[in-house]
Amino acid sequence: MSNISLPLAGFAFTTDPLERADTMRDDADALLQLWPEARVLVIDTDGRALAGDDGQPLALTGAEVGGGPGTAIFLGLRGQQAWFSVESAAVDATAPQRVDLRESATTWSAADASAFCYARGMSYWQSRTRFCGVCGGAVAFTRGGFIGRCAKCNTEHYPRVDPAVIVAVENEGRLLLGRQANWAPRRYSVLAGFVEPGESLEQTVVREVFEESKVRVRHCQYLGTQPWPFPGALMLGFSATAENDIPTVNGELEDARWFTAEEVGAALARDIEDDGQGIRLSPPISISRSLIEHWYRRQVG
User: Fold this and answer.
1) What's the predicted TM-score (pTM) here?
2) Quick one: the chain helix, strand, coil %, rounded to 5?
3) CA of 126: how far to CAs of 61, 138, 211, 270, in Å?
4) Rounded Cα distance, 98 and 103, in Å
């Protein structure tokens, strides 16, 4: 499956995606035939992947896991090989290490990290959908793990993601950055917030930026998207221009300020050599960092 070209690049979990093979999810016989040679990711209850001594994912096949697809989640195909994920409690597998999603983005291949991101999001959704939200009945998963059906009222439940906008807001050559109190010291990033019912993405950009900083956005443009299953978000990246307002926080953020291109450039350089003085930026695996770098390149380019 090819990747669509967008202005943003460099962030994790979007490169070399699996072919999701939707039509195969209903074909139990086909999944059973693919199982012995399939690649199987094993994920624990904390959303970490079982890994070997080298920190790479256990290269388990369906034959090594044993049985059949059963309760495994069918993720799709890479070439002719099927990919599944299973909960560690459901298989007899041990591993020297357990790797979280952020670590995988920096140490695994881009393709494997993208598959883990996908599996992590599905696993989290299933773990939060054990019982029906309508009647409280037990939920069983079908269609390769993509439909949860209540055994009591027959209501169907589908995988959920929570859309959130994340925005590089500028004014007169300055970038708006904020920080939350629980972040690492000196860490700043662009502003973000979840989409609410009855709201367009552009309306969310305007509302969230104003709620967090009292800065008024006058124009915004979509740039790209990153799945962000921490635990289940989809980050929708925008650039925006705003009025010349003084950033004012009200508790959601600890601080918000305008930063010049020179200050942002110095912050980018601290990834290589930290002088211990100025701000640090969000990590390179994130779309927030790509938004900052995209803005910076436009300022100095």
Assistant:
1) 0.92
2) 30, 30, 40
3) 22, 12, 33, 40
4) 10
